[in-house]
Structure formats: structure tokens, C-alpha cells
Design a protein that fits this description.
Blueprint (H helix, E strand, L loop, with lengths): L9 E2 L7 H14 L23 E7 L2 E7 L1 H7 L15 H17 L2 E10 L2 E12 L8 E10 L5 H6 L5 E3 L9 E11 L2
Length: 196
């Protein structure tokens, strides 16, 4: 389910079917308090639920580009390299995937709401599902210029090469920049704005 500009799917915490993302959303909501979004200074790794820390990343706006400021150890291991300090457009050698990520961040900047998405990728026989929570933050409180993200990964048995090739225009090839890049298929399974 992709976002439709005329009727965006929204949901509360109940749409989060991943415990780590639920903990991350709860933590973000607690540090936000009654403000629109929390400040970067509100983040305290020592106060975060310990199970989510390896799956957290912070992305900052840098002259209308998006730079990874902090990347947890679990994410670094999954990607196969440390992308801290790098820009979102350099994550993948396939620009369509980078544009997908950039578009999600721009959407959050424009609308100010958290977003939850599920994406399936297939590289050879390896089929994975990525669950992603992205929440707005601010360095000084005057604009959304940072994002608090939590991602988890798991197997996804309902996504096959054949279904990806025949499913339509949302299918995009992805190649992560690792030491041994493999061609992979990418498909967004769902996306929700979170009303939290």
C-alpha cells in the first residue's frame, strides 16, 4: 500500500507489528512531550530501551541533502559498511532506491508526521523484509532538520522474484554498495503516516 496524496493511510501505534519499532515510537513520543517533535538534545542513548540501540540511525538535513549522522551497529552490520557521515543518495548504487528514501524524508519534512513502512528485497534466494520507523526531530526546535529512525530486518516468505516482476510499477531494482554487490528487487509493501 503506497501513500495516495488524496487519502494518505494513517494509523496509530497499533499498525507497528514489530516490537523494536513500537519501543522506538514510544521513546520518541515520550521525549517529544507536548511539542510537535523532539529536539536532538532530548535523545539520551542511556535512556533508550537497550534492544533498539543497534537498530537506530539519525539522519540530518544538510543543505537540502540527507546525511547519516549516527548509525547503530546492527544497521552497519546489515548494510555491510558504516554509512555514518555519508549521504542517503550514496546508500545504494541504484538511484531509484535512494530517491525512494529521500522522498520519504522529504514527505516527513513537509507533513511533520512519523512514518512507518515495510519493504521487501530479494537478492538471489535471499528474501528480506525491512520494517522502518522514521520520526521528525529538530536541532533547535524551529524546523524539522533531523530524523530519528529505527529499522529491523527479517525473512519475508510472500515475496518472490516472479511476484515482484509481475506486480507493477512499484518494483525497483536495488544494489547496496557492499564489497560484493548483488542485484536485488525492491518493493514497498506498505506505508503509513503515524498519528502518535
Amino acid at each position: 500500500m503506497a501513500l495516495d496524496p488524496t487519502g494518505d493511510p494513517t494509523g496509530g501505534m497499533d499498525v507497528l507489528d514489530d516490537d523494536k519499532l513500537l519501543l522506538a515510537a514510544t521513546y520518541w513520543s515520550l521525549i517529544r512531550g507536548d511539542r510537535e517533535f523532539p529536539l536532538r538534545a532530548d535523545l539520551d542513548p542511556g535512556a533508550m530501551p537497550p534492544g533498539i540501540l543497534p537498530w537506530i540511525c539519525l539522519i540530518e538535513v544538510s543543505e537540502d541533502r540527507y546525511r547519516y549522522r549516527l548509525v547503530g551497529t546492527g544497521l552497519r552490520e546489515y548494510v555491510g559498511r558504516d554509512v555514518t557521515g555519508d549521504f542517503v543518495e550514496n546508500l545504494s548504487s541504484n538511484q531509484e532506491y535512494n530517491d525512494y528514501l529521500r522522498g520519504m524524508l522529504e514527505d516527513i519534512r513537509n507533513h511533520g508526521s512519523c512514518m512507518y513502512s515495510q519493504v521487501a528485497t530479494q537478492a538471489g534466494n535471499d528474501v528480506q523484509k525491512t520494517n522502518r520507523l522514521v520520526a521528525p526531530m529538530s536541532k533547535k526546535g524551529d524546523a524539522i532538520d533531523m530524523f530519528f529512525c529505527c529499522q529491523t530486518f527479517g525473512s519475508h516468505t510472500n515475496f518472490t522474484l516472479t511476484s515482484a516482476l509481475t506486480a507493477g510499477s512499484n518494483d525497483q531494482p536495488v544494489m547496496l554498495k557492499t564489497s560484493a554487490p548483488r542485484k536485488a528487487l525492491f518493493k514497498e509493501l506498505s506505508r503509513f503516516r503515524l498519528d502518535i
